[in-house]
Input
Amino acid sequence: MQLISEKMGQEIGKVPNRISREHDPEALGIDFVDVAESHVLFFGRVKDFVHGELPETKSDLSEFDRNCELEVWLQGIGASRFGQLRSFIRLYEAHFEFHRHASEVLAMIHAGSWIAAEHLRRSELSQALRRVLISLTELNESINKPAVSVS
Output
């Protein structure tokens, strides 16, 4: 399965490199590929909602903000192990922005502001997703770099 379709790639812009599974997800406490994929799929669901494919109830929308594996990791084991890395801080900030913009889009949908919701989805939310994917890649690369020793 291709993670980012050509059309979605046009919406979010070029994402450098691919996130690889060089580390054992259990050792890291998270699978970067899985969380990247879940955020891309979430972005696609938001697009579906903006285009009229709404879920049955409002609570179906709120589940997205409550069950984010990356959020739990960023505030827990990720922060304790990698919080000193600049790439971790960039990921933390990008991830916060992504969910904030997603919540704003969903609120606009519920308010009936479909055009405004689509505009926000295509601009801020798509750029926030791009930053999340780039930051995940950067953090993965930072973790993969061997430690430099000075003698």
